[in-house]
Amino acid sequence: MITHLSPPHLRPYVLGWAGFRTRVGEPAHPSRMLPLNAATLIIDFTGMSPIVTGPRATATFSAHTPWRHGMAVGLTPAGMSALTGTPIREVAGTTAHLEDLLGTRAEELTDRLIASASWTDRFSLLDERLTSWLRPDAGPNDVIMHAWWRLQEPAGPPTIGALADELGVSRRYVELGFRRVVGLSPKTVARIARFQRTVDTWRRHSATLGEAVACGYADQPHLTREIRAMAQMTPKQLFAFVQDTDRLTG
Q1: Which helix (H) or strand (E) holds 194?
Q2: How far apart are CA 131 and CA 12, in angstroms?
Q3: What is the pLDDT of residue 1?
Q4: How many Cα atoms within 13 Å fall on the side-chain side of residue 181?
Q5: Residue 76 to residue 202: CA distance in whole angstroms
Q6: Residue 106, Cβ density class (10 Å: 0-12 exposed, 13-18 middle, ≥19 buried)
Q7: Which tens digits make up the pLDDT trace of 111-132?
Q8: Which residue has the higher pLDDT, 221 or 32?
Q9: CA 77 from chain center: how many Å?
Q10: N or C terminus: which one in the chain shows less Cβ crowding within 10 Å?
């Protein structure tokens, strides 16, 4: 897998993109999609229809990996609305066909990505196409989006009440706003963000298992309970899972 952050002008909408490819001749393995606060466009180059998966608080599984070679694009709640015109709450915890959201643009994008000569060309194409298609005026409430971003930060507010005080609104306003915009409670979004920070920490080749407690957990037992509940793995198993990533070079 090769990953790339989106350019600054797209950052409020697009977290980044990744190219993936399994080894030639490698048998299909069971698929596990980890908890995530974003929507993900998955564009397959081998004939499967492109899809959008929504934010989810627990891992999802399938008997085999359906995608062998393609790209994934992470969208914020603002990006989901601005790119597709569909609120991210509509795909929370579920999957939709990309063509149902983008129409003929889904097939156009897939064909052009397949025809590109390299990952660099594909990343450039995504930058150009997504910039062209975005409709920033279709984004959600600015207060709720600010709150969403604050919960992604390592030094975010310690409680939802503290977040509401920081924004100058009531806790109920925050709760209802997250349900309306994201489709998840702010507490759930905060849990997923903490989990994502753990995964990102463990992706470093120099990472150690014990570093994850500093991602916002009270102690090791708290970390273990959350990892088991959200990923259905032990911390040691999840650490091995996220470390097992190959880098593509072309």
Answers
A1: helix 186-203
A2: 12
A3: 80
A4: 27
A5: 22
A6: buried
A7: 999 999 999 999 999 999 999 9
A8: 221
A9: 10
A10: C
pLDDT at 234 over 70: yes
10-32: b (≥16 Cβ within 10 Å) or e: bebbbbbbbbbbeeeeeeeeeee
Provide φ and ψ at 225, rounded to 5°: -60, -45
> Beta-carbon neighbour count of residue 77 at 10 Å?
29
CA 157/CA 85 separation, integer angstroms: 30
Alpha helix segments (H runs only) across 32-170? 77-84, 98-102, 104-115, 119-133, 142-152, 160-167
Q: Among residues of the chain, what percentage have pLDDT more than 90?
A: 74
Question: Taking a C-beta distance cutoff of 8 angstroms, is the pair 52, 81 a contact?
Answer: no
What's the angle, vertex CA 174, arms to CA 168 and CA 176, rounded to 5?
A: 140
The pLDDT tens digits for 131-178 are 999 987 766 779 999 999 999 999 889 899 999 999 999 999 999 999
Residues 6+ apart with CB under 8 A from 118: 250
- The pLDDT value given to residue 64: 52
- Which tokens belong to 162? 């503290």
CB atoms inside a 10 Å sphere around CB 135: 11
Q: What is the pLDDT of residue 182?
A: 95
The residues pairing with 84 across neighbouring beta strands, listed in sequence order, are none
Average pLDDT in the chain: 89
Neighbouring residues of 142: CB distance < 8 A, sequence distance ≥ 6: none
